[in-house]
Amino acid sequence: MGEAGEEVLLYVYDLTGGMAKALGESLLQKPIEGIWHTAIVVFGKEHFFGSNGISVCSPGTTALGSPLRTHSLGKTCLPEDVFQEYLRGLEQDTFSADKYNLLRHNCNNFSNEISQFLCGNSIPEYILNLPDEILSTPFGKQLQPVLEYFSNNIGVHPGLTRSSSDFESLNNDIDSARN
């Protein structure tokens, strides 16, 4: 770590690969740029939260590829071992895999928590406000039960297949939300 501290970066990925920007306005009656997944990059590692809990990898090596955007969140003077201890505490409690919620307790909330801990800054509002922005639209309100279903069942029923009644029920809910 340099004398001025270790830089803290926010990697921003679009989970839709550009589809949200292309279809957002027609579905939501408002433009959206993407469905954001974020990660914190500090001490040479990328840290993120998902349905499997907290994960760490080399920067830019997730299945999502390279980030669409990178924001500098500031610098931290905290040593890496203090950060690692903090992460272990979060993993045991606040950000354990069973606490993941697609809409309310996700990667973006994790990134915000880490950013505030490391450098006292929040991540950009356009990321944090996206779930409420989507759910405030008529289509978002129709889609909310489907999203809640996914959120409540991520990691719980990994065997959701085309032959299961849950899969058929979920497809029916999606079709209803589209109409």
From TrEMBL:
Keyword Hydrolase appears in the UniProt entry: yes
Domain PPPDE per the UniProt entry, residue ranges: 6-148
InterPro entries with a match to the protein in the record: PPPDE_dom (IPR008580), PPPDE_sf (IPR042266)
GO BP of this protein: protein modification by small protein removal; proteolysis
Any one GO molecular-function label of the UniProt entry: peptidase activity
UniProt keyword list: Hydrolase, Protease
Pfam families tied to this protein: Peptidase_C97
Family as reported in the entry's similarity comment: Belongs to the DeSI family.
PANTHER family found in the cross-reference section: DESUMOYLATING ISOPEPTIDASE, DESUMOYLATING ISOPEPTIDASE 1
Protein name listed in UniProt: PPPDE peptidase domain-containing protein 2
Organism listed in the record: Sipha flava
This protein's encoding gene: Pppde2_0
